[in-house]
Design a protein that fits this description.
Blueprint (H helix, E strand, L loop, with lengths): L25 H11 E3 L9 H4 L7 H9 L16 E3 L1 H14 L4 E8 L7 E10 L4 E5 L4 E3 L6 E3 H10 L7 E2 L9 H16 L8 E2 L11 H15 L3 H13 L8 E4 L8 E6 L4 E7 L5
Parallel strand pairs: 1-2, 4-8
Antiparallel strand pairs: 3-4, 3-7, 4-5, 5-6, 9-10, 10-11, 11-12
Helix pairs in contact: 1-4, 5-6, 5-7, 6-7, 7-8
């Protein structure tokens, strides 16, 4: 896969020229992204529903639409926190990746759980990873730090799942927040393995999008999740055959890749309510209660 090329989610489309004046270094790009995005929860700002809906923008150009609706100045010009794009770690990362690709720097997003955002809890998180000419380097644009994809940094979903299956860790401390007693644990990590693969293959979907083999319980096909997690870790270790196999099973297995539609279990909506999004038409097509409780 050519990580220097934009995907359907990272493509800024009509807003591409906004990235032209940005710095060429990843850390400088991250500084600009922090100027235009604010975390919907971590900021402590009580956004009204109309603004909170920005977290479901999904596509980079839609995120930038939100900025352009309030500003006509360069992205480097200061924005007050309450006027920034309302997003989450995935959106900080998607725009960082989009800007890096615009600069010709191969980049991708990595999905997992951060050990450094708070004590005694492993927060679900997404960071950017770029090719520095010799190796992949991970950077967290939300909090301005380089991270290792390992304990103490960002543990990938694949790493966490494999350790859980071996009985080496308790996944009940891996999830959205210590106060959220639903979005945590084994079913949550299971879904994130699929999400990690999707992001690696250029489908940088929302963290609350559901498709294929994702469920709101542990579900079935655990051996398939085991295989994907093993292949992801082997690919990270430089195994080109594992990378090729990941590409093949992602393309062929409907449990792994999104089809035309995904379900969105957004925190901007009432608990456990779902709306369906058509990814080709880029619009919501239906709302209902979630059925993913196998």
């Amino acid at each position: 896969m050519d990580y220097a090329r934009q995907t359907r989610f990272s493509d800024p489309r009509a807003h591409a020229k906004l990235f032209d004046p940005l710095p060429d270094d990843p850390r400088g790009i991250g500084e600009v992204i922090r100027n235009i995005v604010v975390h919907y929860r971590a900021s402590g700002i009580p956004f009204e529903l109309e603004r909170l809906a920005e977290i479901d923008s999904r596509w980079a150009d839609r995120l930038l639409d939100a900025d352009r609706s309030r500003f006509d100045t360069p992205l480097t010009e200061p924005r007050a926190p309450e006027q920034r794009i309302v997003g989450c770690c995935r959106d900080f990362t998607l725009l960082t990746v989009a800007a890096l690709r615009h600069k010709g720097i191969p980049a991708r997003s990595r999905v997992g759980f951060a050990d450094y955002l708070g004590p005694d809890w492993h927060y679900d998180h997404v960071v950017a990873e770029y090719w520095d000419g010799a190796r992949w380097t991970a950077i967290d644009s939300q909090v301005d730090r380089y991270v290792d994809l390992a304990p103490g940094g960002l543990r990938t979903a694949a790493q966490v799942w494999s350790e859980h299956r071996r009985g080496d860790l308790d996944v009940e401390s891996f999830g959205v927040d210590p106060g959220d007693h639903f979005n945590r644990g084994s079913w949550f990590v299971r879904n994130y393995v699929i999400s990690e693969l999707a992001h690696r293959r250029g489908d940088e979907l929302l963290l609350w999008d559901l498709w294929g083999g994702m469920y709101l319980t542990l579900g079935y096909d655990l051996e398939m999740i085991d295989e994907v997690a093993d292949l992801l870790q082997s690919a990270d270790a430089g195994d080109s055959r594992a990378e090729e196999k990941l590409a093949g099973i992602y393309a062929d297995d409907e449990r792994l890749h999104p089809g035309v539609q995904v379900e969105c279990l957004s925190p901007s909506k009432p608990s456990l309510s779902v709306f369906t999004v058509d990814l080709e038409r880029r619009q919501q097509v239906e709302s209902r209660e979630s059925i993913r409780r196998r």
